[in-house]
Amino acid sequence: MLKAGVLGAGHLGKIHLRLLNQSNKYDLIGFYDADPENAKRVVEEFGYRYFDSIDDLIEAVDVVDIVTPTLSHYDCAKLAIKKGKHIFIEKPITNTVEEAETIRTLVAEHGVKGQVGHVERFNPAFIGVKDQIKNPMFIECHRLAEFNPRGTDVPVVLDLMIHDIDIILSVVQSPVKHISASGVSVVSETPDIANARIEFKNGCVANLTASRISLKNMRKTRFFQKDAYISVDFLEKKCEVVKMKDAPENPGDFDMILQNAEGIKKQIYFDNPEIANNNAILDELEAFADAINNNTKPIVTLHDGTEALRVANMIINQF
Fold first, then answer.
1. Is 156 exposed, middle or buried (0-12, 13-18, 19+ CB in 10 A)?
2. Would you say the pTM of this structure is higher than 0.85?
3. Disulfide engineering: 13 pairs with which of 2, 67, 87, 233, CB 3.0-4.6 Å?
4. What is the rounded average pLDDT for all residues in the chain?
5. How confident is the model at residue 38 (pLDDT cuts 50, 70, 90)?
6. Domains of the chain, with CATH numbers?
7. 207 burial class (0-12, 13-18, 19+ CB within 10 angstroms)?
8. Inter-helix orientation angle 302-316/97-110, to 10°
């Protein structure tokens, strides 16, 4: 078992602590939190071991799980990597692309592994259809959330939209050609609602909307490609795959047939996969353990996290 320690025991940090503690791939050694009062409450409630210095925690573990505010990701990661520790780092990877590039260089120099916490890659609805997403040419994303003061220290692009940016970059194998975007600050000092249009060199267009001031929660993405429409509901963990194929010569009474202007007939059919229930955060943490133990590439690499941040910053710079 890999010895693991968590930096940051806020809302998400406590979830990571609980899951690492129950995982059979990790031995949870303890945690560090910059707020002694919060750390004391966590110890009293859950009994995890508290380290009163980052250095002591890093020395005691094999894997450092960084769940601190984004501004401190870089410094925490640098400390851990230079001591030869593997790092799991929550999204966004760092505050700046330059910091992310430096972390990637350090990881290579010190021979350790790193994974970024883009948890939607482990969403069972996405896992169920990702192999059917082939060369999508139009993608539409809506990620809407009710207002929550947590996370409003950064623009909604870095808080919410970056999830969809990472998903899109993972399925569109083409460089970004052009981005146009707009964002509005309604409640916070940074934009609370944003829309972005990403054009790729292969002709694919992605339209993303993210809001943290909505009256209801929604996390849906739709992929349109040749002869298929794929819908992923990340919130409800459901997906729908609608496909077209050449219509049979003698269609059945219940077959859905479309005929285009050229007279070509297509049959519409559903190819919805089975969705396996899972805990996406536990799965991403354990996938990182597998990458370390088997010396394989993590599912969400530091490069992936860097590119998602790069595109997110390109969007923010449009505001």
1. buried
2. yes
3. 67
4. 95
5. very high
6. 2-112 (3.40.50.720), 121-279+311-316 (3.30.360.10)
7. middle
8. 170
